[in-house]
Each structure stands twice: as C-alpha cells, then as structure tokens.
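# step 3/5: fold
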Amino acid sequence: MSIIYQNELIRIETEESEIPWLKIFTQEPYKEMSELPHTIKLEIFELLDIIEKEMIRYYQPDKINIASFGNYVPHLHWHIMARFKEDSYFPEPMWGTRQREADLNLPDFQAFCEMIAAELTTKVRSYEYSF
C-alpha cells in the first residue's frame, strides 16, 4: 500500500494485487456514507469518475468494479478495480474463490498511478473552486 494522492479531505492508496486496484479513503474516520458532509461526497464521486474513466482508457478492462465495504475496517472507503476475464478471480469478486492462475500482460501500474496523481492534482484543484 502506498499513498498516491491526498488532500485535507481524502487520500488515495494502492492495493497490492495482480490487477490495477486503488482505494479512496476519507481523511476523517467516517463510518457511513450518510455521515459525510456534502462537499466530501461530491469530491469522492468526482474522484471515482476520474479514476474509472482513466482505468478504462489506460487498461481497457472487461469491467470496472467499485465497492465500499468496511466491515473489518469501519472507516468509509471505496475500492476501484480494473477486472479482466484472465485475472485469477473473474467473474468472482477479488475476495471470492480463485478461478485460475492469472494470465495478464498489463501496462505498468506505477506509470498509471503517477499519471492519475498528476491528473487528480489538476482536476480536483479546479473542482474544489467550482462550488
């Protein structure tokens, strides 16, 4: 896990995996979505939209999975995963039963994270001032 982007409201981390996988956390430990101030909700949805579009463009996955659980970690967060028919778990969730050995040849994840961090710095900064 490494942090690729953060501001006073949120942080985005990587998840160690065979697939491209990012997580968005609130900086404050909110437990439920209904507890979030409206501005944080808007920022999170903007971030989810940006990350999903860039994952689709960069990786051309079969599907993007976005999930929010928090049963073990009761700190509101979202998982964004690029899924491929050749990954070890597809079509199961990444927490499901392994279906096969992965056969993936994906573009560089570190380069993707650097590109996303730069894009988020620009887009979120302009988004913050549009309220």
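# step 4/5: annotate
Confidence is low (pLDDT under 50) at residues 126-131.
# step 5/5: archive (pending)
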